Amino acid sequence: MTLQDTAARPRQLGIRVGWLLRRAPGLAVAVAVAAVATAAGKLVPLVGGPVFGIVLGAGAGALVPALRAERLTAGYAVAAKPVLQLSIVVLGTGLSLRQVVEVGGSSLPVMLGTLAVALGGAWLLGRVLGVRGDTQTLIGVGTGICGASAIAATSAVIKPRQAEIAYAVGTIFTFNIAAVLLFPPLGHLLGMSPHSFGLWAGTAINDTSSVVAASFAYGGDAGSYGIVVKLTRTLTLIPIVIVLAILAARREARHSADGGGFQLRHMPWRKIVPLFLIGFLAASALDTAGVIPESWHAPLSEVGTFLITTALAGIGLSLRFKDMRAAGHRPLLMGAILWVAVAASSLGLQALTGTL
Predict the structure, then answer these.
(1) What angle do CA 25, 150, 182 make, to 5 degrees?
(2) What is the DSSP letter of 68?
(3) How far apart are CA 176 and CA 205, in angstroms?
(4) Are 285 and 97 within 8 A, CB to CB?
(5) Global pTM?
(6) CB within 8 A of 284, min separation 6: which ones?
(7) pLDDT tens-digit series, residues 206-223
(8) 281-299: string of b/e by CB count within 10 Å (b at 16+)?
């Protein structure tokens, strides 16, 4: 090691410490909001901590001018991206690939069919209603896969505006609440078995917490089956995020200063397969191999949910309501039609495959 290398070390350390110190205040505010949101989510589990996180963050940012200070925004950005990516990795520890296999081929047509309806419907409705760009993508992915978690993972690669994330989360939340209240009585009215109701809830309700609430309210083994279906559905995040990462890179290349064309073989592998996605797969593989003890699942799930809540709190704190007002009512209408279409297609596919 040269004398120059030795002298450079303290300087590099100083740069890193300075980077952390500039971001610590804003990150601390996001964590504090997330702690309050988590407590509120335990009191009102139907809403959940992540939704409270973005609502309380947005409210605090609007009501307390000091929370909009320039010195805090860098910390909010850390919460909105690196913390968000870490949350996806931690949530991977609760997804055993063995469970996916145990779900069986009979449920896969329903899961893949409803995903196709959600994504295809988002593309079509977005064109008809004029809901374009990242808002259209986030609502489609959130409805088709796993609500706030899918929106979080997708946001990490397509880099939407904060208002678009907030609108998508709000839309998904609205229909999660409706599903928890409406699905159990509708299921009993249709005479569904617990197994078929679990499949319906797991494919047609977005957030995991809402699937749990609706499935266990129905009774029988609907709860356990609904959770497994939901976790299996989460795996579809992997190919979708990879595709979105490639599309985002193409968009960047098209708008780059040199005007060069997009070539997949020249793309850095981290843009094709984001690092947090590799972490998610590694965490799932560890859980499948039995390395992660069963007793750790609940605490790790709590940590993952808290990290998502922190990320959404950071997004909420950065939000400007005028940006959301400019979007109008059309994204909400799109979310409503998409939700009904996915719920109906799940029932229809179950009837076609003999699982209803």
Answers:
(1) 110
(2) G
(3) 6
(4) yes
(5) 0.68
(6) 92, 93, 95, 96, 97
(7) 877 678 778 877 877 787
(8) bebbeebbeeebeeeeeee
